[in-house]
Predict the 3D structure of the following.
Amino acid sequence: MFDDFFIRALFVGIGMALVTGPLGCFVVWRRLSFFGDTLAHSALLGITIAYTMEINIALSVFIISSLVALMLLKLEKTTNLPTDALLGLLAHSSLAVGLVVIGLIATIRFDLMGLLFGDILAVNVNDIIIVWFGGALILLVLKLIYKPLFASTVNYELAEAEGMKPEKVKVIFTLLLAAIIAISIKMVGLLLITGMLILPAAIARNISSNPKGMVIYSVIAGLMSVLIGLFSSLEINTPSGPSIITAGLILFVLSLIKIKRSSQLKS
Amino acid sequence: MKSSDNLLVKMEKAGVFINNKWLVKDVSLEIEKGKIITLIGPNGSGKTTTAKMALGLYKNISGKVEKFTKKIAYVPQKISIDWTLPLRVFDFMNLTSDLQDQEINEALEITGAKHLLNNDLKSLSGGEFQRVLMARALAKKPDLLVLDEPVQGVDFTGEIELYELIKKISETLKCGILLISHNLHVVMSKTDHVVCLNGHVCCSGTPISVANNKKYQELFGEDVSKILSIYEHKHDHKHGVDGSVEEN
């Protein structure tokens, strides 16, 4: 059944949406959108290393993104620079280093467009396995740290005072972000992965009144974006990664109607 | 040793030194089960810092802080919540624990906030929010309860009620309470031990001994006389027309 490229794309897309939905909620709640971006940029270096050393792309990206993430957590503590400056610093320098390394290794020529925007239609069965198994693992860990992570997102000191270990779950969550980027970079590319994290959560925020509801709506919005995006890319022959994000954007605009309604009801 | 069994927090010469400045230093105190300890002192005297040390929120402190319990509930002085989160009172009640609906309802009922259960947290007024914070702490049935200015924004009658409630909590839950308050006279009459801070422990002891302490009187000036009069004039009996004492 995985013979057809479109079916494979559907499976990978659905697997991704199931994971980016809940993770994306925390990205939005903790204001980490730009952080996700930084990790995605650093992924380029990971991909280059994977090509030169001939190792698995997802593994290599995960290692590099994790290192960048941990470096950020360390720099936050040891320097007086604001987090957004550190994020910019790491994002652009890791992207630049990635490009320099590509230039150095003249023997490798790969499709830069594919790298930036991904190619979900080119996935193979191996990719499906990585997305579903990796995704299941990410969701499992997220479920285990959900309570302390959520509590420390609401109020760090309160969570710490009441024994929730916010520092530890912050590091784990950061590694989960690196992991989702690692398993989905090939499909949506490094410029669109943050879109997959933020758009469904943003749509969900507009239509939900409690945290669990937002997580569920976020998954649904992600699934709808993938389905609408993929089918329309097949119908009207548009690039699939960007079509998924565009479908998400349209859903976001529609979700604004709900906000307008409920604010009218209140007044 | 009975007393050490009841010990929840022991601070010895604890202090916090940040940015070349002592926030507070040389604080020694013990929090025991069933006792209410009150921290008083002017603004910036290190009350909140001391409470946070007791909770273990500072990584680098001088001196020693030992905690003998993990069942802790905290009502912070200021709480900033990011409103990108959709959060109802119900979700907030369960923030750091898994409570039964019934436990949540009971706690909210006690603090007079039951009707707010399904409200959005950001729609609450300051006083309502304070009641929810108290209910959350109460519902956790902690061994140690740290209350940093718990009656802020609550109206006067509500304030008296809440202090009555704090007393009741300490009696029913047998938990130790570390209380920070501005409202000196109400606090004085409900507490077992008072620590008066001014960057260090200025004086401590039973409420009455602190109130009579010279250092304390210098620190608070004319307020003291008011407190003393209120504190010492606790009417637990009435006088008859001829001056004889009648029991209530």
